[in-house]
Amino acid sequence: GCSGRIHRLTLTGEKRADIQLNSFGFYTNGSLEVDLTLLRLGLQETDEKAPLVGFSLTRVRSGSVPSYSSRDPHDCPLRQNSSNLLALFLINTKDLQVQVRKYGEQKKLFISPGLLPEAPSEPELPKSEHRVTPKVDGGSQGDQQGIGGKDQDLVLGLGHLNNSYNFSFHVVIGSRAEEGQYSLNFHNCYNSVPGREQPFDITVMIREKNPEGFLSAAEIPLFKLYMVMSACFLASGIFWVSILCKNTYNVFKIHWLMAALAFTKSVSLLFHSINYYFINSQGHPIEGLAVMHYITH
Q: Which segments constitute the GOST seven transmembrane domain (predicted)?
């Protein structure tokens, strides 16, 4: 699994039925973009009518574990309606469409096809306060369910090229009620039966962003926190050196090593803080800063 920001995942010959892609904390106006550029399935003809391949988006409660970790490994999460489940993206390779099913009350959780335009401004939300009927891209809409049940279905187009499939979508957090920690998983329920696994290839790009940058909600304060801690260790090192200089007759090598430790820790935290700054602004860490942090850590 991954933890937020911009990342690209490529798996070849994968046989797992469940893959945890990422977990990220969103604030209002935060966005999640998923671009599945390649999905190659080694499936045989089956009698299954419902799609058994797709993504699930769930809200992770504080202190909880992923919902599929305690379930029967033979059960398919794409067939279940869990209380933690927010949305399913069911990939139908026969009809070349992706059916989006929303569960529960998410009035301000906006799911749309395609990626957000490359712009420095924040993701724009629909201006209307009323629920807008989703646009259909390459398919027909599903039936509308009652309040509190399944929301109106959205159908996305599924591209097909050289025995591989591709599509993209984005999610925008529209209000404080939808804020929280979200987990995105990929499921291939055809591989849930032991001994009948079929290898598949997948390449996916995931980009999460909050209004203040690419850091998850829990990581946003870390830049300032590590900077303050670096300053504290630097101040303590200077204070310790001043004491050693005033008492030169009772100073041993171990005392100078203690001072060096404080300065080294200060430099390590400084590199860590700068690394988080670049992650927040660019969406990915600077390898050189990460290496320097682990060298001085």
A: 221-297
For position 294, what pLDDT does the model report?
A: 65
Tell me: do 39 and 73 sit in the same domain: yes
Q: Which of 62-71, 113-122, 128-137, 146-155 shows the lowest per-residue confidence on average (mean pLDDT)?
A: 128-137
| CA gap 140, 132 in Å, rounded | 16
Q: Where is 253: in which H helix or E strand?
A: helix 253-282
Are 185 and 103 contained in the same domain? yes
Looking at the domain assignment, is residue 216 inside a domain? no
Taking only Cα atoms into account, the Rg of the chain, rounded to an integer number of angstroms, comes to 24
One domain for residues 190 and 262: no
Amino acid, single-letter form, for residue 42: G
CATH code of residue 142: 2.60.120
Tokens of 55: 């993504």
Residue with tokens 């989006």: 100
Helix and strand counts by DSSP (H, E) for the chain:
3, 12
Q: How many domains does the chain have?
A: 2
Q: Where does a domain end: 151, 179, 209?
A: 209
Identify which has the larger pLDDT, 109 or 105: 109
Which of 166, 178, 159, 160 minimizes the C-alpha distance to 111? 178
What integer pLDDT is reported at residue 291 of this predicted model?
Answer: 67
